[in-house]
From TrEMBL:
It comes from Sediminibacterium ginsengisoli. This is Ring-1,2-phenylacetyl-CoA epoxidase subunit PaaA. InterPro entries: Aromatic_CoA_ox/epox, Ferritin-like, Ferritin-like_SF, PaaA, PaaA_PaaC. One of its GO terms (cellular component) is cytosol. GO terms for molecular function: phenylacetyl-CoA 1,2-epoxidase activity. GO terms for biological process: phenylacetate catabolic process.
Amino acid sequence: MEKDFEKIFQDKIDREVRIEPRDWMPEKYRQTLIRQISQHAHSEIVGMLPEGNWITRAPNLRRKAILLAKVQDEAGHGLYLYSAAETLGISRDEMYHQLHTGKAKYSSIFNYPTLSWADMGAIGWLVDGAAIMNQVPLCRTSFGPYARAMVRVCKEESFHQRQGFEILLTLSRGNEAQKKMAQDSIDRWWWPSIMMFGPKDDESPNTQLSMKWKIKRFTNDELRQKFVDVCAEQIKILGLTIPDPELKWNEERGHYDFGPINWDEFWQVVQGNGPCNKERLEARRKAWDDGAWVREAASAYAAKRKNDTTEAAA
Ligand code: FAQ
């Protein structure tokens, strides 16, 4: 029986029919999606912290308004994604609990500090750029609510990427100190950004099944290569350099070659030992604790309303 269901399920996937929350799905498909979507949601929410750090220090009102809107967009993305994950039968409280206890991951990139204004440019160009490269294919992911949430997210990420590039372009056309600040920022964010795509394919335990089920449309290495190819061209417009002496166009492959990734650093950050892991989790736990009175008040109000309605009906 289970085998028949699995066959029908895989057949739908192969025919590009979306899977919806009430459709039968293998338990492992459900669990993989809960893991990926909730970790994606957590990344959006934790991802507000490094940029939030610069809202009060943006160099002018226009930059401040743009950054504020961008950070608010990330909150919105987190909320759509938590809603998409809830359709798979997990509660939002449970997802928060998993984040706060360190059971659920969030993107490694948000454990690096934002040291200068140019970092707002590098995050937009590189981090949002990497996010779009990964997320545009997710608009065609096999699970309906996730795919639909990604459409709007990608439109907004595309604006984020451009605003980041524009910050760097302005700095790159500025004085020596500004150019230096932009270069320093790219030097710090380049390698962590290419680590965002996850471990290389032969060390990625989830890729094989996620590709079979069309949760992922491209592997980690395929997306990383596309990203490197795009950035290697865009950097020329900035007149700055990517901190990789091995970055070189390979005519035969039709791609840029690039140097070795420090996987030890990646796993250290993923396991909680990056420069800001502790600080990020503490900020999220504090936000949860500080919001306790709001949750209590909302529950008390809901209970009172329910009581009032029952009494009125009696
Ligand atoms: N950081 O087998 P795989 C954004 C974990 S949103 C931490 O390859 P998978 C917007 C992985 O979870 C950025 N952990 O896993 C923004 C797994 O551990 P688990 C987030 C990582 O799922 C911009 C283990 O390693 N985007 O930036 C990372 O098939 C600016 C083995 O890995 C998404 O979440 C990592 N980088 O592929 C916000 C997109 N990479 O769970 C603010 C959706 C891997 O088994 C400002 N997610 N791990 O314990 C995906 O596409 C996939 O989940 C991957 C990983 C590609 C991230």
